[in-house]
Amino acid sequence: MTKVTMTVNGKTVSGDVEGRTLLASFLRDDQGLTGTHIGCDTSQCGACVVHVDGVAVKSCTMLAAEADGATVDTIEGQANADGSLNVIQQAFQDHHGLQCGFCTPGMVMSAAALLKENPKPSEQEVREYLEGNICRCTGYHNIVKAIMAASGQDVTAIAAE
Amino acid sequence: MYNFDVEKPGTIAEAAAAMGADEAQALGGGQTLIPTLKQRLASPSKLVSLKGVAEMQGMGKDGNTLRIGGATTHATVAADGSYPALSALASHIGDPAVRNRGTIGGSLANNDPAACYPAAALASGATIVTNTRQISADDYFQGMFDTALEEGEIITAVSFPIPQAANYQKFVQPASRFALVGVFVAKYADGVRVAVTGASNEGVFRWTEAEAALSTNFSASALDGLTVDPDNMITDLHGAAAYRAHLVKVMTGRAVTAAG
Question: Complex ipTM, two decimals?
Answer without folding.
Answer: 0.96
